Amino acid sequence: PSVPRHTNRLINEKSPYLLQHAHNPVDWYPWGQEAFDKAKIENKLIFLSVGYSTCHWCHVMEEESFKSKEIGEIMNEHFVCIKVDREERPDVDKVYMTFVQATSGGGGWPMSVWLTPDLKPFAGGTYFPPEDGVHRVGFRTVLLRIAEQWKENKDALLESSQRILEALRHTSEIRVQDQESPPPPKEVMDTCFQQLSRSYDEDYGGFSKSPKFPTPVNLNFLFTYWALHRTTPEGARALQMALHTLKMMAHGGIHDHVGQGFHRYSTDQHWHVPHFEKMLYDQGQLAAVYSRAFQISGDEFFADVVRDILLYVSRDLSDQAGGFYSAEDADSYPTTTSGEKREGAFCVWTAEELRALLPDPVEGVTEGTTLADVFMHHYGVKEAGNVDPMKDPHQELKGKNVLIASCSLELTAAKFGLELGRLSALLQECRQRLSSARAQRPRPHLDTKMLAAWNGLMISGFAQAGAALAEQGYVSRAAQAAAFLRTHLFDPNSGRLLRSCYRGKDNSVEQSAVPIQGFLEDYVFVIQALFDLYEASLEQGWLEWALNLQHMQDKLFWDPKGYAYFSTEAGDPSLLLRLKDDQDGAEPTPNSVTVTNLLRAACYSGNMDWMEKAGKILAAFSERLQKIPITLPEMVRATAVFHHTLKQVVICGDPQGEDTKEMLHCVRSVFSPNKVLMVADGDSSGFLYRQLPFLSSLERKDGKATAYVCSNFVCSLPVTSVQELREMLSP
């Protein structure tokens, strides 16, 4: 490669996204004091650009504007330019995204914001094309106009930025009102169910026409709603909505049928043409939700999807030290000689390619039928490509096919006169061949940053899958990743989590010169992961660490006046707002998940303060939960768990004994949204016995493994039969 003509300060960073911009002609600074001081000393405005390394439109804006020498000169002359990786610094991203959404009615990445030298925002947007068009002002024009305004109307700009900040402070505040109790769970659950039911797509599943996101939070809510309303028509509909959505997603092009795993979202109603990046947080949550679908339905189809996701993550997103990488890009070079990346190039096929790869005649069917004929029929492949031109504005997918299981195995088998088992084997062989062919293509960029929060979500995925599918290998992989977190993303001296670490040279794990401290989401998702891992592995060390982290989370983020947790800790002067997220999106909001974490923590420790805190969070969000619960389905789910009280399922027995294992298998195979599992192994010096003295009074009956189902530490009569236990577990 030729020597780059420009190098800026980002060359010293670890974030893959910042390093992508290290050779722009823009004089980029990372977020930090050096940039803030320069803006103040030179009395310059700040241009803040926020994105992430696998973001398609971030790449487009870089190619068009940030690589332009002429635009770079305008930026350098008039502004101090700062680049932020939103995955590394969600705190900075959220403050300014709150501003962009409030002032423009929309948001997204790349996010472009102009700030005064004291970091107050006054103008912003997302992607800007480089030059003026019919419908949009170009980036160059915006830069020059804002520079002119600063020169001519500085006082007005400063005044306006102060007013904007005050308004944001006021509108973004979430605090407990006069009513200090959690909202009524039945009404909140019913309203949320009705709102989801109204937005449900009866044909293709999902909860909007397009674009369609997987949103596991909606599906988890529906499973809990079903569990609490099993005998009602509403309960049946909740289950049908969730399972149908999961089936349609798995059949769709959002699911990578050749390389496994799920893409970020579908651009159309049919789950067909995706935005091709693959995010770790989706894989973790989807592995967990498909595991629950398997627990509930017993349908192997869902278990196979779980295996598919975890195969992808183990192979393509795993660091050899045990952590999980963040994402794979949507864009890649179509061939090794291409000069330009295209979205989806790694994943799509022409009919001609498929015919060349799958020419073999299929025996015992109509003469002349090849593997390609069978495969192309099943996966909706068309000679001229199967992508609607309306979903392909840049013509990147013209003539290409995104594989989608367009009919059932039964219909394809009937069409070609094949037995089901044989058809499955043929399709599997075809996918293997395509996988080998794809391995010859240039791979998309891999973001090898490792984030505590997203690793937490993925550990939960492996742990829950291991428990539900009785696959010990998945539990071991979860434990390996948790050990990685303890080694690389935890400071034992301070007891605090760190946000991120990075794959370095020679595959070592590196940390930035000044490590980024963990945010609320890091604590919440890691604590959830450790509880899930304890229930799957019964290793009490994970439980002890989870409870210690919960104490640290309380200390750093709890709002004693308004209740609930702030997303960031106090004391960073560069953050203008301390926010509390109020919407479950692609990931659940941390306050939603932490309600269930606190209830689990109380059950494992006997510390009732945590139960009280859970109620206070629900009280702080009460108004939103009652008016628009569809924005917080995970918190609505937690409201039900809070109200119904978690069942402590205690198995007294030797963890290695067959009778104990049978009972554990029973507990893990039943979907019960309001239970915690623990094993009383008789070791009174162990961590659990020290936390929960009542365990010492529970005994085995007739020398057999014995189960107790307890509520607030008051226990049922002992049972030794798996059948009785199963009945006790249903809500």
UniProtKB/TrEMBL annotation:
SUPFAM superfamilies according to UniProt: Six-hairpin glycosidases, Thioredoxin-like
Annotated ranges, domain Spermatogenesis-associated protein 20-like TRX: 7-168
GO biological process: carbohydrate metabolic process
Pfam families attached to this UniProt entry: Thioredox_DsbH
Highest taxon above the source species: Eukaryota
PANTHER family tied to this protein: SPERMATOGENESIS-ASSOCIATED PROTEIN 20
Name used for this protein in its record: SPT20 protein
Organism: Orthonyx spaldingii
